[in-house]
Specification:
The chain has 334 residues and is α+β, with helices and mostly antiparallel strands. 59% of the residues lie in helices and 14% in strands. The chain is elongated, with a radius of gyration of 35 Å. It starts with a helix and ends with a helix.
């Protein structure tokens, strides 16, 4: 700040130097004016001027120091009170701009909330005819036609479910209910949802569950598992998907392993990015790049770590690593 203050006052400092330099020059060239007394006066004047700058520095930079330290969080309480006329002009401008930004932020937040509520309402309304459509499809006699319709129905159902959870994730912490969850029943329910799709692709499931229970939120854990199973089914064909659970030290691990097309090494570090699909299969228009992104985001809030191992053509293994001891233990009193 000292450097900025000197630069700001450089014209005044230069004026002082020029005037006193001119006085010394005149006293030097004019023998009628004693040089040494003038030099002494200029020296004392310079000391007073330096002291004056030091005093004014603390007074004049207090307001601007507070602005420099201001985090721009629209909280005006952190700003120092203005004293000079110019500072008052700056303060008034900052206050006006901040008030406008607050109003615009509140208006935008209201629009976002309104859009979210409308979308959630629309999703719930669409689910009603979708459920009715499922009952109608079950009455179709032709097995081949019923299988094709069920596959398309499932795609719509999964996309709606993904959109619903995407809108709920920002408020996920308000929606958690931590409890002991039976892994087998949770996974079985998700397998049944994907049954028609798996039959169409000739895919089966193999369960090897050493760990039977985990501590988490059932609804959000089901959503994460749904994304992993959907991915495994989507990129596999005529093979089994192996789901296993075991203890790694004091941590419970749930694995979903498929033998599908796998993931390229250059994609592994980016598969959880929003909207990222693939570099090797960039023409895959069915991929949205949202499933794994949402799964990883929900897993973080549940203190679950997702690991992935894969080789192109050899399938992929996604692991959900649950912490054995975590804040959820205290919440549930276990």
């Amino acid at each position: 700040m000292i450097k900025h203050y000197i630069v700001e006052r450089r014209s005044w400092i230069l004026l002082f130097v020029v005037i006193h330099g001119l006085i010394l020059f005149i006293s030097y060239v004019d023998p009628q004016i004693p040089f040494m007394p003038i030099l002494y006066i200029v020296f004392l004047s310079a000391l007073v001027f330096i002291l004056f700058l030091a005093i004014r520095y603390n007074k004049e930079t207090k307001f601007y120091k507070s602005m420099e330290a201001w985090e721009n969080d629209l909280d005006l309480a952190a700003l120092a009170h203005s004293s000079s006329p110019f500072e008052k002009i700056v303060e008034a401008s900052v206050i006006n701009q901040t008030e406008r930004l607050k109003q615009r932020a509140e208006y935008n937040q209201m629009l976002v909330e309104q859009e979210k509520d409308e979308l959630l309402s629309w999703i719930h309304e669409v689910k009603t005819p979708l459920s009715a459509m499922r009952l109608i499809v079950d009455r179709v006699d032709d097995e081949a036609i019923r299988s094709q319709i069920m596959y398309e129905w499932l795609r719509i159902h999964l996309l709606l479910d993904q959109q619903l959870h995407q809108k709920r994730i920002p408020f996920m912490e308000n929606d958690l209910y931590i409890e002991l969850i039976q892994i087998k029943s949770l996974i079985t329910k998700e397998m049944i949802e994907l049954q028609s799709w798996c039959m169409q692709k000739g895919i089966g499931f193999e369960l090897n569950l050493e760990v039977q229970e985990v501590l988490s939120d059932a609804k959000w854990l089901a959503f994460i598992m749904r994304q992993l199973l959907t991915n495994a089914v989507k990129y596999s064909h005529s093979s089994d998907i192996v789901i296993s659970s075991y203890l790694r030290g004091e941590q419970a691990v749930v694995e979903v392993k498929d033998t599908g097309r796998g993931i390229d090494a250059r994609d592994l570090s980016r598969i959880f990015e929003k909207g990222y699909t693939s570099t090797a299969m960039h023409q895959d228009h069915a991929a949205t790049g949202m499933g794994l992104y949402l799964a990883e985001k929900a897993a973080k809030l549940l203190l679950i770590h997702i690991e992935v191992q894969s080789e192109p053509g050899a399938g992929a293994t996604f692991s959900l690593v649950f912490p054995k001891h975590n804040p959820f233990d205290q919440i549930t009193g276990m």
